[in-house]
């Protein structure tokens, strides 16, 4: 985060939201290793600029936001080093002003629209109403709590006992509003769709879905500072920890900072934050049931696998890659949107302490993925609300195919695999008994 903005928010009594008037979003186009190194040096040593994406060889662009006071300095550095760039937004506040904020009316499910973004209270009211309407299959679940005392609320969808589970978490980075909107859309479709494929996956598995896993940060991004990423715990004169650098998997090894003023501050230790600690405890309580874990982020159009500490293909990397690539093919059919699939380290950069690495390492869940939704740098975190439906539709298409492909590769083939294990064991014992008796 840009240091002078954080200083302003920390020490100034604010009567209105922070305005990004005349802030510029650059789309920088590095062409070689030297360009990437120059950008990394800026990111690491100059806190005046907000890197929306990180410089990495695999990505063909880097988004950087600058205040009007410092944009000329950035352009001079880029020009002096021969680094190409374009301006994605000349006034970031204009894009924020155009974001369509909806108004959900309690006890009126039709007032939840898919061309709008909603506040935390409106989302929670909608979830309550949705569960009341579909109480035979849906229930409110609480996956943890926050520093400011809020619940991390979600929905469980279940059409019967003894089923395997799919877990979805989103909104861990507060400014990634599209992840929350799309996750809500998925909840809605699993309960209300007439599509036979969607109805089938809704019935076959138990779904544990948490749209907003960083409620404090999400509220702050609405009320005070649209580009907020972290939670809201005070750390000396600063605020917030990057919750997706705080999980206990190679914590602080790569891609994080010990400077609390940065957006990638990892905290003072693994699971130092109540949000990650309590949510991880909840996930662990389900670890024997979960076959598929999805973490929703934006942006860059990527499907990421664990791990972020090495490009080496750990665990069932080859299967997960093949399944993921096929599912991204299904995602592209509707609108032509192209995703790249790879583990974190090879697809973007070395980064550890994230949720999917911990889930895979600590709980050994068979299939674990992180989506990075639209787009490729035009709007970034400010994806217009008219893209909520297209983004949500193509992502749900891919989830349907992800499950189908997983079954083709021998995963998720039974909604009651625990019982199958017992049956297989009994069958084996019976065969052994027959052999011994015959002998």
What distinguishing features does this structure have?
14 helices; disordered C terminus; globular; eight-stranded mixed β-sheet; alpha/beta; four-stranded antiparallel β-sheet; about 450 residues
Give structural notes:
This protein is α/β, with parallel strands linked by helices. The chain contains 14 helices and 14 strands. The chain has helices at 3-11, 33-45, 71-80, 92-97, 120-133, 177-192, 196-204, 215-223, 274-285, 317-335, 344-347, 355-363, 388-408, 417-438; strands at 24-29, 50-51, 62-66, 84-89, 138-145, 151-157, 165-170, 206-210, 234-235, 238-239, 290-298, 302-305, 340-343, 367-373. The strands form three sheets. The protein has an eight-stranded mixed beta sheet, sandwiched between helices. Strand 12, helix 10 (317-335) and strand 13 form a beta-alpha-beta unit. Helix 6 (177-192) packs across helix 13. The longest helix has 22 residues, at 417-438. The N and C termini lie far apart (73 Å).
